[in-house]
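ok new one. same drill as before - structure tokens go in, u give me an amino acid for every spot. 44 of them this time. try not to just spam alanines like last time pls lmao
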């Protein structure tokens, strides 16, 4: 498992990670925070 998923699992638990893995995401706005959020979501 990748390092970021190990850390994320501590926060979201295994069930939460599965929900995120199967989720659809819409990012509205690509300003200062949105561009970073979109990149991290795309990498996930």
């Amino acid at each position: 498992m990748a390092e970021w998923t190990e850390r994320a699992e501590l926060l979201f638990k295994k069930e939460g990670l599965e929900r995120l893995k199967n989720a659809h995401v819409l990012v509205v706005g690509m300003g200062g925070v949105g561009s970073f959020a979109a990149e991290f979501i795309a990498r996930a």
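The longest helix spans residues 3-21. and btw The mean pLDDT is 80.
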